[in-house]
Automatic annotation (TrEMBL):
Key word RNA-binding present: no
Main localization of the protein described in the UniProt heading: membrane
Species this chain originates from: Leptonychotes weddellii
Pfam families registered for this protein in UniProt: Tetraspanin
InterPro entries: Tetraspanin/Peripherin (IPR018499), Tetraspanin_CS (IPR018503), Tetraspanin_EC2_sf (IPR008952)
Descriptive protein name: CD151 antigen isoform X1
Transmembrane segments: 17-42, 54-79, 91-114
Gene that encodes it: CD151
Biological process per Gene Ontology, one example term: cell migration
Record's signal peptide: none
Membership in a protein family: Belongs to the tetraspanin (TM4SF) family.
One GO cellular component term noted in the UniProt record for this chain: plasma membrane
Keyword Transmembrane helix attached: yes
């Protein structure tokens, strides 16, 4: 009987630590998801003002929200495991299911936008650059265009000739420039007055090709993180609910506790002690109830 008790206690302890390990994995997964979302918003959002669709930004926000909630539910899972509250574990599983759906949605949105990006840029980027560059109320577009041309060494949406029809040139704000100074290989004030290939960047495909490649690479990261981590989380969450009820029974006495109770009853000579639930639990545990079962 001592061997039975030892195995039961050891199994319960091992199970608790296994579930604790799962919860730590959930928490780390949530941290990774949130980090990708924050990375998108903080470091990769410079060009969002050049995009007609809000899908790219929406996927980043979904990842941030999903990551935060996964981290919170990871802590909840640890508390539920060590406090042995199965209701908390059910709540934990439901929250993870919601997060799983959010991450899958973010991955699907990233994939859909990945397919539509080329068409969107071709239809909208030229108009955005030519009609909003250096125009009142569009400072974000101006900053994004200048950074785009300098960082990716390009000039104009398709080529440098696109700037000739821009509102910036036609309104006379250019000050004699034919392209923005950000097109220049060596950035100095007024360098945009000369659009020779030795002075400005002339890249095949223009800035559309460069921006498309940049965003597509990032969308692949968002999609992989959202779908990949979501698929890893859910089987582990299912494993939590597959644990037998006895492993989560709130504050129930273990077999050693029943032995101690019976031993004290014998020492006190009590014959009227109420039968413990263990004595009613089945033939396997009946020997604990007999006087000679405890030596």
């Amino acid at each position: 009987m001592g061997e039975f008790n030892e195995k039961a206690t050891c199994g319960t302890v091992c199970l608790k630590y296994l579930l604790f390990t799962f919860n730590c994995c959930f928490w780390l997964a949530g941290l990774a998801v949130m980090a990708v979302g924050v990375w998108t918003l903080a470091l990769k959002s410079d060009y969002i003002s050049l995009l007609a669709s809000g899908t790219y930004l929406a996927t980043a926000y979904i990842l941030v929200v999903a990551g935060v909630v996964v981290m919170v539910t990871g802590v909840l899972g640890c508390c539920a495991t060590f406090k042995e509250r199965r209701n908390l574990l059910r709540l934990y599983f439901i929250l993870l299911l919601i997060i799983f759906l959010l991450e899958i949605i973010a991955g699907i949105l990233a994939y859909i936008y990945y397919q539509q990006l080329n068409t969107e840029l071709k239809e909208n980027l030229k108009d955005t650059m030519s009609k909003r560059y250096h125009q009142p109320g569009h400072e974000g577009v101006t900053s994004a265009v200048d950074k785009l041309q300098q960082e990716f060494h390009c000039c104009g949406s398709n080529n440098s000739q696109d700037w000739r029809d821009s509102e910036w040139i036609r309104s006379g704000q250019a000050g004699g420039r034919v392209v923005p100074d950000s097109c220049c290989k060596t950035l100095v004030p007024g360098c945009g007055q000369r659009d020779h290939a030795s002075n400005i960047y002339k890249v095949e495909g223009g800035c559309i090709t460069k921006l498309e490649t940049f965003i597509q690479e990032h969308l692949r990261v968002i999609g992989a993180v959202g779908v990949g981590i979501g698929c890893v989380q859910e089987p582990e969450a299912g494993a939590l609910l597959s644990v037998p009820d006895g492993a989560h029974a709130g504050r129930s006495l273990t077999p050693p506790d029943y032995e101690l109770t019976l031993l004290r009853a014998r020492e006190l000579g009590s014959q009227d002690a109420a039968p413990s639930p263990l004595c009613q639990g089945g033939a396997v545990l009946k020997p604990l109830c007999t006087p000679h079962a405890i030596t």
